[in-house]
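Summary for the steering committee. The consortium agreed at its last meeting that each partner would contribute one worked example illustrating the joint modelling workflow. Our contribution is presented below. We chose a case with several input lines so that the handling of multiple components could be demonstrated. No manual editing was applied between input and output; the record is shown as generated.
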Amino acid sequence: MTELGQNLIDGLALGSLYALIALGITLVYTVMGMMNFAHGEFIMLAAYALFVFAGLPFATAVACALLAGVAIALIAERVAFRPVRNADLSAQLVTSLAVAAILQNVVAVTVGTRAQSVETPAAIGESTSIGSISVPNLEFVTLGLTAIVLGGLGWLLYRTRTGLAMRAAAENFDMARLLGVRADRVIAIAFAISGALAAAVGVLIVMQTGQVSPTMGLTPVLVGFVAVVIGGFGRMFGAVVGGLLLGALSSLLGVYLPDGLAPFREAIVFTFPVLILIFRPHGLLGGEIGRARV
Amino acid sequence: MSAVRFRSRRSTATSLLVPLALIATVALAGANGTPSFRGTVTLILCNLIVVLGLQVFVGNSGVYSFGQLGFATAGAYVAAFLTLPAAFALLQTPGLPDFIADAHLGALLSTLIAAAISGLLAIVVGLPLMRTSTLAIPISTFAFLIVVYNVVANWDRVTGGSSGLVSIPTTTSVESAGLWAGTAAILALAFKWSASGYRLRATREDEVAARSIGIAVMSERLIAFGISGVLCGIGGALAVHQSGVLNPATFYFGTTVTTMTMLVVGGARSVFGAVVGAIAIATVNELLWGVENGASLFGAISIGEAPGLAAIGLGLILLATMIAMPNGLSGGREAGELPWLRRLNPKASVPPLKPKGSVASGRQIERSVESALRAEGISLAFAGLQVLKQVDLAFGPGEALGLIGPNGAGKTTLVNVLSGFQAPDSGTVSLDGIDVTGRSPVRLAHDGLGRTFQAALPFAQLSCLESVAVGAMGMGAGRRQAIAVATDVLGRLNLLEQAALAAGSLPPGRQRLLGIARALAVRPRYLLLDEPAAGLNEAECGALVAVLRGVLDDFGCGILLIEHDMNIVMELCSRIQVLDDGTTLRIGTPEEVQADPAVVQAYLGTSFLAAVDA
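What follows is the complete predicted structure of the assembly.
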């Protein structure tokens, strides 16, 4: 019982992290229809900001990382994604792949390809005991942050004019534009929030692993993509569900997989969505993409 | 008189010979260079084969896959396993079954087996993945790539783990790589020009329209995915036999970006583009490498992966291409379709077509209990809004039934139910007495049901001849037969003069006629037309009536006509069914319907009142 409880909370924390990644990807997808490959590089760059500003107090360094995430997302949107806004899905995906390759290699050239270690506050690495369950403090941070983000996004989308504009743009971009929604502004806001979410994820990953590397964004972005596919494209709720499922699965496999299969955990985790797609080609919650609209 | 073709002989020859000449030039340049230059060129040719593999799937389907390098990995490891010398095999791959480890095959046989296994893997992986949507495929193939990497990097006893394999025999010469690359280019072109290739390209242009003419999107994609897997496997196998070393990262993310850049920069839709892109990017890559390492041009390189400055350069090139030149250097054209080459040989355009004797005897109708397309008790609600309420409808071969009603009456929804694009909540659809409720649009097209859409949905990048012929190909016709059918149908609709033009370049009115031609090429027994005259001018409307009259008389097929132009409805239809608010208001002859006060009320009164209420 204790063991199960321990595993569940670990899975929930990992799933929350995945949900944050999937949310950042979904947010951009809903207003622009683009799956952003470079989201992983937003995460990576924010993490490197933490590395670069390691001399400052940790809270200040985190603020710098957040700013870096928002800034790179806005710059990428303005320079690379705005010109292909009206291109088809595949063209946008390839464009974001190009952005990802550029950002990754710029860091590799300027800072180096080797992983660098980053110091984080000692308290983060400690655990707190609740009864017989020992919960790492980082998991509290992750869970708390996810709750705040979900609440904040919900408030923004459903209680503010900006949120209304974003939801309208997500439903029907051209129509929203005709009705006076400022497209550039809505998309820029979506990218800014997405960049902030990426930065939060980057900080959490650094606190977990204590290091940064140019390729550290690759696995998170894939996790986010897969979570989005599982949840069904373009659904905020689906992104959260997909992220939590994937996190729980990964966490449970880490505990229960026999030793011989343990190295293949990642392979098994990424095969899982394929099994879902066999039975639900449009994801668990169904998306609008791929359905024939006649 | 020269036979009608999709392309002139000369255009075909140019499209085939130019890529082969480019490959031969590269291979010859390599053969006459220093040993290290030979190695570089050999690897470039191996990369080219992988890019051609990408082109077969991505170019023809329009769907991006980021997993094809997984098949190159599979091919490379299989080829390595089959050829490792005994001493090294014992040391590096102790977990390998004896019959593989002791195979010690030659270069050709190991490459062929690697190709077969990669192709098989592609089919197995593609079976579930091709079921998903155009956007889910890139992501799930990317997941596949990571799965392959993870398995190969951790299966230490068989693959040598992340440190990989060394001392693999280096049997690939620049000449053999050139021969394989040439073969791959021919194969890619042959697929593109095959009936299967045309069907796949139709799904790329418009998935919905392709399904309506009986093209099974998933199976067409799967075929190309399999062929692509074979080519990528060959590229991987040849590359490993050039470099002699292999590790899990050889064909991974970096190589994926490089090969994708080559394809996109060259222009994904054409084989010519794939060849040009691969050679151009490889050259740029070499130059950037030279700058970065201070080395002389064309020094030794490792395949694909280009770290640092070179990778930034490639990324910028890819980005610039997507923004400024999305169709790539080739513009998506084959060599024989290039304007500046066409100017050299004026005959390269498709010769004008002349109408031939009709081949439109129609399909043999198996006489069954009843010949009719019949809907009974169809009901359908969208999120609580009852769109259709217990609607019945029936018409037979040779009959034209008009379906009219105010906007929002449910006409198009009913057509979607009849053609399988929308399942009804209740009610049945039967075709000649056989219950076909719930059958897919693809299946119904094969059962003899054709339809058009309110939008023209052209196959924009295909020529008009190809657009219509692909309708016959969807029914399994070969190219020759499909061309005969298409020529006949185009002649009826007075579109022969435009046969060689791209469908997307026609004016809207002509595009709608082309949509009807495409549906007719399926040889339907029942044809559902959704506002065919919208956007046509008066002369074109007259021509349309004549065409449809001919369809009724010559093809003997039944027509369901949704149309707001009452003149056309009155002229063609023997019976008219009026739909209002999801129910049938009236069925009768044109005269009866016109005289019915309830019908007039529906058209003018209720909508007028509703407007006042609102």
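Residues 288-294 of chain A have pLDDT under 50 and may be disordered. Chain A touches chain B through 52 residues (CB under 8 Å).
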